[in-house]
Amino acid sequence: MTSDPSETAHLIGGVGCEHWNSRLDVVAIRFHCCGRTYPCLHCHDEASDHPVTPWPTDTSDDLAVDAVMCRCCGTWLSVGEYLSLYAGSAQHPERPACPHCAAPFNPGCARHTHLYFQV
Ligand SMILES: [Zn+2]
Ligand SMILES: [Zn+2]
Ligand SMILES: [Zn+2]
User: Fold this and answer.
1) Which ligand places an atom closest to the C-alpha of 85?
2) Where is the CHY-type domain (predicted)?
3) 48: helix, coil or strand?
4) How many whole angstroms from its chain centre is CA 119?
5) Residues contacting residue 66 through CB under 8 Å, at least 6 positions apart
6) Which 3 state secondary structure label does DSSP give 109?
7) CA atoms within 13 A on the CB side of 36
8) At residue 30, does pLDDT exceed 50?
């Protein structure tokens, strides 16, 4: 289950947005509230007239939903895959990266996880 490709094609290969502009800001989030995909929460809010609701994370079905896209390679990560990158496991201590193309993700995103996911 992914977004309409025509909506996300322009995000692939890009970095950041007008709110976040580090080279590490290479993910886009598909939002639980409306199913649309934006580089960040603020991009969502400027384009939408409703509040963001975080993705549920209670069940294995919840964790299997594709909700994060790596903009370097266009691969979708499930909720569970994305959260595990930031779980501080032995393999990725503080160095989250795309499991498919190895593009480094912004470690600072861990501070905002609760805005996007019920953690
Ligand atoms: Zn929304
Ligand atoms: Zn933004
Ligand atoms: Zn990637």
Assistant:
1) 3
2) 10-89
3) coil
4) 14
5) 1, 2, 30, 76, 77, 78
6) helix
7) 16
8) yes
How many alpha carbons fall within 13 Å on the CB side of residue 15? Answer: 10
CB neighbour class for 25 (10 Å; exposed up to 12, middle 13-18, buried from 19): buried
Q: Which ligand is nearest to the CA of 46?
A: 2
Residue 72 Cα to ligand 3 middle (Å): 5
How does pLDDT run across 77-107, given as a tens digit for each residue?
A: 999 999 999 886 566 566 899 999 999 999 8
Hey, what are 107's tokens?
């470690």
Closest ligand (CA of 30): 1
The 3-state DSSP class for residue 27 equals: strand
pLDDT tens-digit readout, 43-80:
999 999 999 999 999 999 999 999 999 999 999 999 99
Q: Ligand 3 centre from 64 Cα, in Å? A: 18
| Side chain identity at residue 48, one-letter code | S
CB 78 within 8 A of CB 30: no
